[in-house]
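Service request form, structural biology core

Requester: graduate student, group of Dr. S.
Request type: structure prediction, single chain
Budget code: on file
Notes: please return the result as structure tokens.

Sequence provided:
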Amino acid sequence: MIETTLLKAEEKMKTTVDILKRDLSGVRTGRASTALIDHVRVDYNGVPTPMNHIANVSVSGTSLLIIQPWDPNILSGIEKAILKSNIGLTPNSDGTVIRLSIPPLSEERRAELTKMVKKMTEDQKIAIRNIRRDAIEDIKKLEKNKEISQDDLKRGEGKLQKLTDSFIGVIDGLESTKAAELKQV
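Core staff response, request fulfilled:
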């Protein structure tokens, strides 16, 4: 019974870390990456469609994204979606392809992005701790209902704490990696 609770908690923690990885991939580091526009949705025939479903997105060099739509009629829609997305990039179209030039980050912008990354990771750490709290409550209910012993309760709490510490460590690693990327010029 405790194992089931621990497995559920671990799955939720993995999901939390996956969400953080996805969110961090969208933070601009001064390098071109297709992840910068993964979240951009283009209105295609009235349906918000992910960019990679309607166009080929590629990186050219370290500071240029090239978007080549499969349907040339959607070019203006892609431009509008990029401008609306607030990623801070201006599309440059030649009628067949859109180029997004990634300008180098200023020191001020690097500091802002580092703070934003810190907040994102702290929010996910809080989510991990909330998952731990809920799992502890579930384990305590098992003990209260006499389904497990107090020793089992303590062992379960210990395992849960180790699990929590490992996921917090993963989040700290992701934060330091992203912060290092932001500091590179």
